[in-house]
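Deviation from plan, reported transparently: NAP complex.
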Amino acid sequence: MSAAQSALFQRLFDLTGKRALITGASSGIGAHLARTLGQAGADVVLAARSEDKLERYAAQLRSEQIGAEVVAMDVTDAASVGAAAEAVGAVDILVNNSGVSGHEMLMDTAEADWDRVLDTNLKGAWLVSKAFAPGLIAQQGVILKVASILGAGLGVLKTVGPYAASKAGLVQLTKAMALELARDGVRVNALAPGYTETPINAEFFATPAGQKMIRAIPQRRLAQPEDLDAAVLSLVGPGGRATTGTVIVVDGGHTLAIS
Ligand SMILES: NC(=O)c1ccc[n+]([C@@H]2O[C@H](COP(=O)([O-])OP(=O)(O)OC[C@H]3O[C@@H](n4cnc5c(N)ncnc54)[C@H](OP(=O)(O)O)[C@@H]3O)[C@@H](O)[C@H]2O)c1
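Because the crystal trials were delayed, the predicted structure below was used instead.
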């Protein structure tokens, strides 16, 4: 790589000296993004409920020369979030990635299931952002919310009503938070992935219905978590300093085909 190339990469993406907290880092996209931010130079704090899984993953990341700590956190529980924020202290980058879904039609959805999805995906993102806001303001940091094409105002499907509603709320939360925190020097953006192969959906995509859905994606393939890296680094990296309140869709053209 030439000196000019490496200076360019540094100006856009270098996270050396930054500390990033990723919720839902015990699995799937969150675990992957923690490694990506670490590879870009950040020290990472892995947050989720499964502390054992986080500890094992942090050890793996440390063996790859990535600074990694762990904090147990249930994003639906304000006391758990508050305790985690106190234990961790200030971070420069917050990734609100924790998310769950249901599988019922709306009229068959139990109230507890509605609450589980909305509390995790929407309220949880707000609770965690609020708890870490003082440190983010002090560090002039950045927040990234992992939304979904199902919440980006582009189309919806049956049996994911609470999930789609939560992610649509998350997109508006991103914009409202970006507006309110701009003067404090904190940027807030969202990523809206299309179907990306992870434990949340691997079983489904192996079924005939899942295979049919893959064929409906113009690129005819599921994204892999690493396909999200360029968008994520452009949003949280120094090159994104003028970008706030934005949603980037990474979906293999899927939303072009949702009617
Ligand atoms: N995969 C896709 O196709 C896709 C597409 C668009 C958007 N997304 C979004 O991407 C994010 C990650 O999805 P994924 O596919 O990687 O799912 P995943 O593999 O099931 O991971 C979900 C993560 O969320 C954490 N989590 C769940 N409830 C939590 C809670 N109450 N408190 C703290 N953490 C909690 C889980 O950790 P613990 O269980 O250990 O707490 C886990 O680490 C989600 O927001 C999802 O909606 C995914």
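The first helix runs from residue 3 to 13. We consider this an acceptable substitute for the interim report.
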